[in-house]
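QA checklist item 7 of 12: single-chain prediction sanity check.
[x] sequence parsed
[x] length recorded as 346
[x] structure emitted
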Amino acid sequence: MQSKPEPALRLARSDAPARLDPPAPRLTDSDVERNPGMPLDLDMVRALRVNRSAVERRASTIPTRRTVKKEWQAAWLLRAVSLIDLTTLAGDDTAGNVKRLCAKAARPVRLDLVDALGVADLELTVGAVCVYHAMVPTAVVALEGTGIPVAAVSTGFPAGLSPIEERVREIRASVAAGAKEIDIVITRGNVLTGNWQALYDEVRLFREACGDAHMKSILATGELATLGNVARASMVAMMAGSDFIKTSTGKEGVNATLPFSLVMVRMIRDYFQQTGYAVGYKPAGGIRSAKSALEYLYLMKDELGDRWLKPDLFRFGASSLLTDIERQLEHFVTGRYSAAHRHPMV
């Protein structure tokens, strides 16, 4: 067996040059103060511009400019496990499969692999379990004592076109049922028509309804037409008090991509530099392979720094990703790839 990662979750080492362009913001390991939002600055929002060719060129270098191998790759993949919002958002969800998903969330990596890697002391879990509102009570009971929060998709997910009063009631009902995180969806039409005041007011209303529950604003980037719209929607959502901004519902034709993500994390950095408040980031939809997960971790490290590689500031919205990460960890331990059915989700 190969040597275990030492230390298991350190992300400081890389085989690529350490130069960052531009430099990542400085944020200490202390607790992050929650983003209270700020008044809408329409001049700032309207002035945002995105050079699409430069974004695509920079995004294309992310998979190649930084690599990790052997025990360091295993360490990065263990970190990725801790950042997953383990998700089931299917029409045929039942209490039984949600309970099994919660059991997987509490022990995301097979015990024989945990022992072989020597990381039992980490007590590794995923970042959260994400479900529809109807499944929140089931998930809350199943996760009792684990410390894993339940995230609920609310506000008429995935389209977000139900009456505003119903969307607000859904948020409040999910919070009352025990959800600690709420993934809201914005009205895409406000972005496509440039109605930034309406978008700000909507997200602000949702934030107030969330209360102490952290709010992730889903922008549905694949439906926003341009990267400029992605940048402006990101900034408005943060001004309105979002704790996270998230790419997609997972139901769009185009979900998380590296160009979308680059634009969004640059907006997070700009907002942090202007206000001092750190906002989290959640790519979701289509992230199924360990290789893809590593690429997003490289992006976050280069653009925002190590502090954004912790669950309070970064999450993956995914379901099948965990299966491939387990397969890669088994390959590290045994030198052989295993079949996916050896790593069941539920």
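[x] summary fact logged: The first helix runs from residue 42 to 47.
[ ] second reviewer sign-off
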